[in-house]
Every structure is written in structure tokens, then in C-alpha cells.
């Protein structure tokens, strides 16, 4: 028979887990970090993302609707290449470039950092297993320093990308290493292809079962549309956004939300 103390500890732990799980999906609001607003629109020099493109070329696998990553195949050379890309990006001053270059810079850096987190902790079943003891994932961990500023993934997404560009398609561009997430694009973002890739990523996700699954009068949506309602708007606005990219229009009536946090790994 378990002791009264062990039962008490079990109840406390269970209550804590319930409390954490109830707040896990309270996604951060867009909260501008003013420092990162500057740019040099006269600078036409591109940022070189070739090292990141090589990583994508070597380790991305397309399986049905999913774009998966062969984490188990990333060897020492692959790790070195990924690390080198991140080091090179961290040495740049993104504020010295035009806004279009900055956008691609932040999206690629975010995605590369996410892949590195998985590689550094592999094997892992879910990115949610990373981070501190009482954390749901590593998004608040400092993972890179740019211009002397220590940054977390949440800083990049919610304090730089979302508030500066205010484009809902950003949610289809940044990848959280999970099956429920919009696919990691097999092409590095650049100033010239970003708009095309954003539209492509939106179309892929919204026409996939993990994005929108409509049956009869019931629609299952990705939890992204619940977490970031502030970006996608009310039901009417969300339906309009979805149907902008849907091959078969959807009518939103009864809505459920779902998200698969399992690792986006190619077996």
C-alpha cells in the first residue's frame, strides 16, 4: 500500500501537471522589441543561406502531406554544417540589411535553431520534452546571441517576426519540429522568394488534414488557429483566410482543434 505521503506527493504532482497543461497552449502575444525595427533599405546585398539550404537538401524527406527530417542521419559533418550556419548568422547585424533580407534571415535562423535543438538532444520523442523542468518545450530558452542580444525562439517569433511584419502567413513559415506543425519548407527563404514560399506554405497546410479536416458540418482545425486567434481574426475572417488557399471551400460551423506534438522525424 502506498504511504499517505506518497499519495499526497502524487496528488500534488498530478495537480501541477493539470495546471501546466491548462496553460500550455496560451500562446505568447505579439510584443514588439523596438530595437529590431531598424533597417538599411539602401543595402542591396543578399544574406547567404547556402549552408542552411545544404542541410535542407541532405535531410528533408517528403512523405505524403508531411515534410520530415532524417534526424538520425545527421552525422558529425551535418552537425558542423548546421552549427557553422548558425554561427555565421549570429555574427551578422541584420539591422544593416533591408527588411526583405531581414525577414528571410529570421525565418531561416528560427528553423535552423529548432533543428539544432532536436539534433543536440536526439533521440527525443517530442520537442515538448526539451526545456527546463517546469517548461513545456524550449521556446523560452536563450539559444542564440545576435548584436549582443541573447534571443529565445519566442523572441524571434513573437517579438520580432509577428509584430514587425504582421503577416499571418508567418505561422506557416516557422517550424516547431512537430507533425502538427506546418511543414519545414525544403527551400531556404530569401528576399526574392519569401512571398512565394509563404503562399506555398499556407496552401500546403490549409489543404492538409493537419491544417483543416472538414467532414459534414464539423471541421477539425489545427490548434494554431485557436492559439493565434488574434492574428487570424473571428470565425468569418478565419474562414475567408482559409478559403483564400483552399482548393475546396470550407464553411466553419462546429469547430474542434487538434495538434500532434510528435517529432517530425523520417523513420
Automatic annotation (TrEMBL):
Cleaved signal peptide residues: 1-26
InterPro entries the UniProt entry points to: DUF547, Grx-like_ET
Record-level GO BP terms: cell redox homeostasis
Oxidoreductase keyword on record: no
Family annotation (Pfam families): DUF547
MF term (GO), any: electron transfer activity
Domain DUF547: 98-206
Keyword field: Signal
TM spans (from-to): none
Superkingdom assignment: Bacteria
Keyword Heme in record: no
Name this polypeptide is given: DUF547 domain-containing protein
Taxonomic path: Bacteria, Pseudomonadati, Pseudomonadota, Gammaproteobacteria, Vibrionales
Amino acid at each position: 500500500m502506498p504511504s499517505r505521503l506518497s499519495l499526497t506527493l502524487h496528488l500534488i504532482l498530478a495537480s501541477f501537471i493539470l495546471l501546466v497543461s491548462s496553460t500550455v497552449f496560451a500562446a505568447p502575444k505579439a510584443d514588439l522589441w523596438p530595437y529590431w525595427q531598424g533597417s538599411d533599405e539602401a543595402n542591396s546585398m543578399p544574406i547567404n543561406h547556402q549552408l542552411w539550404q545544404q542541410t535542407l537538401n541532405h535531410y528533408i524527406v517528403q512523405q505524403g502531406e508531411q515534410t520530415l527530417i532524417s534526424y538520425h542521419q545527421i552525422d558529425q559533418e551535418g552537425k558542423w554544417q548546421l552549427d557553422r550556419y548558425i554561427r555565421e548568422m549570429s555574427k551578422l547585424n541584420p539591422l544593416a540589411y533591408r527588411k526583405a533580407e531581414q525577414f528571410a534571415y529570421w525565418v531561416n535562423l528560427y528553423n535552423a535553431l529548432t533543428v539544432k535543438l532536436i539534433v543536440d538532444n536526439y533521440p527525443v520523442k517530442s520537442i515538448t520534452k526539451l526545456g527546463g523542468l517546469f517548461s513545456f518545450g524550449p521556446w523560452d530558452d536563450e539559444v542564440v546571441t545576435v548584436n549582443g542580444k541573447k534571443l529565445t525562439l519566442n523572441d524571434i517569433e513573437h517579438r520580432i517576426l509577428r509584430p514587425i511584419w504582421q503577416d499571418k502567413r508567418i505561422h506557416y513559415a516557422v517550424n516547431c519540429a512537430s507533425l502538427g506543425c506546418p511543414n519545414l519548407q525544403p527551400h531556404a527563404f530569401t528576399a526574392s522568394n519569401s512571398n512565394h514560399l509563404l503562399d506555398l506554405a499556407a496552401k500546403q497546410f490549409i489543404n492538409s488534414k493537419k491544417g483543416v479536416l472538414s467532414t459534414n458540418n464539423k471541421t477539425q482545425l489545427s490548434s494554431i488557429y485557436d492559439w493565434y486567434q488574434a492574428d487570424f481574426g473571428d470565425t468569418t475572417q478565419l474562414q475567408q483566410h482559409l478559403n483564400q488557399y483552399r482548393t475546396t471551400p470550407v464553411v466553419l460551423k462546429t469547430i474542434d482543434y487538434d495538434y500532434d506534438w510528435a517529432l517530425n522525424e523520417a523513420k
